Amino acid sequence: MSTDGSQSILERMSLAEKIRLCSGADFWTTIRFDENGIPSVRMADGPHGLRRTSESADLPGSGAMPATCFPPAVTSACSWDRELLQAMGEAIAAEARAAGVQIVLGPGVNIKRNPLCGRNFEYFSEDPYLAGELAAAWIEGLQEHGVGASLKHFAANNQESWRMTADSIVDERALRELYLAAFEIVVKKAPPATVMCAYNKLNGTYCSEHSWLLRSILRDEWGYDGVIISDWGAVHDRTASFEAGLDLEMPGGSRLFDQAVLDAVRSGSLEEARVDESCSRLLRLTREYPHRSAGTIDPDQHHRLARRIAAASAVLLKNEGGLLPLREGPRLAVIGAMAAEPRIQGAGSSFIEPMRVESPLEGFKGLVQTFTYFPGYSLTGEADGNLADEAVAGAARHDIAVVFAGLPAAAEGEGYDRKHMRLPAAQDALIERVAAANPRTVVVLLAGAPVEMPWLDKVQALIYLGLPGQAGGSAVGEVLAGVANPGGKLAESWPVTYADVPSAGFFGERQAEYRESIYVGYRYFDAARKSVAFPFGHGLSYTEFEYRDLQLSSLSFDVRREGSQLVVTARVRNTGKRPGAEVVQLYVGQLDAKIFRPEKELKGFEKVYLEPGEEAQVVFHLRFRDFAIYHPPAGSWAAPEGRYRILVGSSSQDIRLQAEILVNGDRAAASEAPDWYRTLRGAPTREDFEWLLGRTLKPAPARRKGHYTLESSLQEMRTSLAIRLFEAYLRRRIARDAGGADPLDPNYLGMLANITENPLRNLVVNSGGDFPAHVARGLVELANGRWGRAIAHLLGKQPEIQDRDRQEPPWV
Fold first, then answer.
1. Predicted confidence band at 737 (pLDDT cuts at 50, 70, 90)?
2. Is 29 helix (H, G, I), strand (E, B) or coil?
3. What does each C-alpha distance from 306 to 105, 319, 473, 474, 475 come to in angstroms?
4. Which of 31, 246, 126 is CA-nearest to residue 502?
């Protein structure tokens, strides 16, 4: 038991009070016990700004305080700049303190397994090292200024379809080397105040009650001693989640599990010590992150920082003939509705009410001498012949055409996945026509994920802005005009078509089979020699960089010697005429590997800013884990012995320097692999995947009438007229709360997905008491055809249960 004063407080509290302490008071705060001197803790959504709402509000945009909308992770990750991410964390901490917020819910470090994940805009990368390093920098900035972070969503939460109940089936190597790795980096480098467990199951067990995940890995192996909280409504069995090590259930208000936990402790099936452990950690959280004086913020300064991050994150994907930066003199046709009304962020819980928004048209003023604007298409993505004709004619009359294109807001959002990887057909057609009318065409893309580009070889220049935040308009103006030199690099691979993605044929299922194992993103494309539109780490500049003088501290490396490290140095020189930034990337790859593993993996990066003619030395330190794989038979990490390549370059496919090294490591780490993992051809089969798992997969059993429970969704129970009527009522209520049933509103679409795919239990917990458990139970019994029991539940009575065939947790 803790010796910091927690024990004396807990001794004064009853068991019921301690159980209550471990769930929220409402949607955003923990419970306050004035009589025991326990204050509450206020949380708010992040992570690219602050979404501070009222205590009961949970809808995006529902009365949120204005805040600086920084570029979301899809954009800021392209900066590859730890200092900028730390500065963002510092600024958000200042706004959080001013708003009375102690914990910001972010960042998210889930791996971008598939480009169709609807929430990819909120995550950093397909690579765990890049994601972990940038997230750690953000957390350091936030927590150094007295505001706690919440690292999320732990773990293997890589799709929005069925996100509350999906079962992520992942082999242990992929889990350790990809899906847990970013979390491990952050926990060890910048321990967050809290870690948020994910909604989904992991290999058959909900993350909220996964003892191996939360206790064995996070706490025992990684040494994390902070607070583990649930995602909102992620708890299914509170007794099991206490046993697993989950401290705080959010949101509060329903008190759905209190009696079941009380009974479990009294019966001896749950030790009271488990509850006390969670209480102690929560009490420490209140001491480490107390309410602080509000302070003041400088919105202009934060806006300038947002512009700096957006400009540094802009990725120059293509620049034939040096068309960019724009020179003075040529007349510009600026085309696209997004030039006037840009998409600056994604939808869902991370939606920020921006303090201001600058459009690209506003950003051009004072930077570009002459331009004419043509909308070209509607913001909904639908074709408009007149607008398109005017834009094409305008492009033909001007010297250069700059087309702003991207995904409409409804194409991607929290709660649902994208349906395809294409831009709206009207935008693709417009770009084709504009490029035919004026070969000197520049395309600026605004999207939270990669898109297919059938017109790529017809345009002369291409810039990817991602979702650039509130200052994106002025940032893109500076980049196009050459005031800022784009130094961004892609944080994810851009496939030519969606069919090229290894998980394309089985992504988004309720039983989510990660058949591709470790071959995600560039790990697959590089090893399989699969062409991409643009590789991981790619990004051009208005200047040029020369790499030279790769040096290794040794040509042999004994990874078995404790504390050993290999020092790698290289020199980079700006050989162009403009100042600029270059991201020097270091990859490690084993030659003639006997075990299936990626051809190379990112193990280091540094961003250097150089004046023309300036040169800098970049230093990297490699250790055991940089050469290791996870070896399931041994249950530990192993570095296979053999020859390795140390690769230094400007992207995963633009390697400038390389050297070989002999690694003295482990011999037992080699093993055979089934066909797909050796050849990387076609699509991985279930049989190959079952070989990796070491077990046979069975399809998840379908719910049927008579066996529905609170774990069933409305979608599963739609055969019941009562359920269909209830769903219709919920749809009307959501439409009212969202300001109308707008199929083009991503927040509305996300909420619809939540009510249809989520378990009824989740609706109870997230309602804060507005949707009582007895009503939900009554609806379940109506769907089961048990009218007598249904009426008793709906009237608030507890009917006597005769049958034992329902498969429900004890608390139901």
1. confident
2. strand
3. 19, 25, 11, 10, 9
4. 126
